[in-house]
Structure formats: structure tokens, C-alpha cells
Amino acid sequence: MRRNERPRLLHIFPTFSAGGAQARFVTLANTFGPDFSHQIIALDGDTSYADRLQRDVDVKFLKVRLPKRTSWAKICKIREVLRQLNPDLLITSNWGTVDWALGNCWSRFKHIHMEDGFGSAEQDRQIYRRVLTRRLALRRAQVVLPSRVLWTLAHKTWRLPREHLNYIPNGIDHQRFRPTAFSSEQVPIIGCVAALRPEKNIARLLRAAACLKETHKFRLVIAGEGPERDRLEGLARSLALNVEFLGNVADPAPVYRRFAIFSLASDTEQMPLSVLEAMASALPIAATCVGDIHSMVAEENQEFLTSRDEIALAKSIGSLLDDPARAHRIGWANRRRVDVEYGQELMVQRWRVMIDGCLSS
Question: Is 80 exceeded by the pLDDT of residue 2?
Fold first, then answer.
């Protein structure tokens, strides 16, 4: 590290649009303030989440032209970029940046890799080619994993050294995501906050709601944007559902306070921030039981996690709608669990120790 200079961190993201990895980085960067200098490369060129960064954060977005497909020419180009930028620490994020991890196998810059989970291609099984690539590309990196499921996978399937694996659960500002004392909504709202991507399977939630519309009064509110939006709006019309699509929301905290129930119908997750935000907002969770969600929620909430099936999900949502007093108690149990286990301060502290340890090694 250069003497008398702030450490320079180079972050590689597949995109810098709204998402869990981007939200975590913004939280960390805003908390660290001017302690570090950040350079960010968004591989798809989308930097729309940059407006969440505070003014005292020293950050610069860089553009790099690379071949789309993995090739030796692409790896060599990445090595050249790394030499030119000469970062004190390289931080990559998820499978979409694995070529940068491969490029660094020979460049040997200090490296942290964050793995949040998988897209639809790996929701049911690991792709062997990707397993081998991770095994090679990440063998010298410090790998950060937010879920126990991922930690076990990285150790047993990717065969990464135990001493390089770091379990750091996501955390949130539980003061910002505070519960409301009352709801002004006359009809209970089933809510979801998620990117409208295939692996989130919002269509499953819509079909579950369709199963309930003849027996229960409710509204469905979905916050988030993505490539699935047109298809989902068409499905909602065909199912004759009362659905409000909010699109991207700058501050989701007030949106959660409108909800009576939070529902997530994903095919694959690990430790979704939206579930933590809903828990901090004292909401009961009706969701598919994927990743670490079962261990995240309060014990009282666990029976409302289901298989990846719209009928089972509809039954869970219906049970919560039928017993508002119980749903309220479950929501407050979730809130207490966030207060104890998933505070933002603890996550930030763990990340700071990780970054400082890598810089000083």
C-alpha cells in the first residue's frame, strides 16, 4: 500500500443497478466515509445505484471494454487493467465477475470475493464447469459468504480452504426499517420487494394470490424493477388480480410499513436483504424455504415457509390473513430477532476487520 495515501479499493460488479450486493456496498462505503478510495467497474455499464452514495465517499466509476466471452485474450486484458490501476485490494462480486478473479490468479493482487448466491441457471444444482472455475479462481482469495448454506457449499463442493472462507451475514439499519404503530390501509396488503428477474419467480406469488382471491380480501403490492415486469403485468391482468407495481423505490422503508404480510416466492436465495428489511418492519414472512431463510426468521415464523409451490405458498399467506393477531405477534418476533442478530453495525464491523486484515497482510 502506498504510504500516506488512502487505500485504493477496486470493486467489480456485474451491474451497479439496484440489488443486494450494491445495497451492501453503499452501506459499507457510506459508513467508512473518506477512509478509502473506491474505483468501481460495472461490467454492464449500468451505474444507476450510484446516487445512494454520500458525498464524502471518494468513488470513481470506470469503463473498461472487454470481450463478452471468457477467453485467454479477455484474461490478458483484465491482467493489463489490473496492472494499470494497481489497486491495494480487489473486491469481486458473484459469478459475473469470476473472469477478474481468474485474471488475478497471475497478478496476485490482494483479493476479496463476495458470493451472494446464484441465478436461475444454478438454482437446482451446481454447474460443474463453474465449480471448477471457482475452485481455481478463488483458491487464494478471501471469500465472503452471507449464508451458512453457501459457506458449506464453498467448502465441500468448491473445495476452497476453510481458512479463506468468511461467514458475514447481511445486516440492516433496524432504526430505518421501523414498524408502524398502525396501518391506514383498509384492506390488508401482501407485499414483495424484489428485482423482477426470473429467479425471484414473482409469477409464483401472483398465482398464489389468484388461489386466494375468492376467499380473502387483500391487495398485492410489488416494489422493484426488472426484465420480467411486462410479463408479470400481463399475468396479473389475465388472473384478474388487484396488483400495484411500484417499480424502483428510492427508499423502501415506508413501503414495508404499508404491508400486513411480506411474501417472497424465489426459486433461489441465500440471505435476502428484503426478508431482513421486512423482519425489521415487524412483518410476518410467507416465503419459499430457500437458502438461509429458515434460520433467519423467528421460530414462530418458520412454519409459514413453504416448498416452491404456489398452492403451499397460498396456504401460508391465507393462514396469516385469517389470524391477524398471530401474524402481528410473529412480526414482532421477527423484529426482535433482527435487533439481536442482524444489525448493520455488526456487519460493518466484520467487513472492516476483513478489509483491514487483507490490506495489512
Answer: no
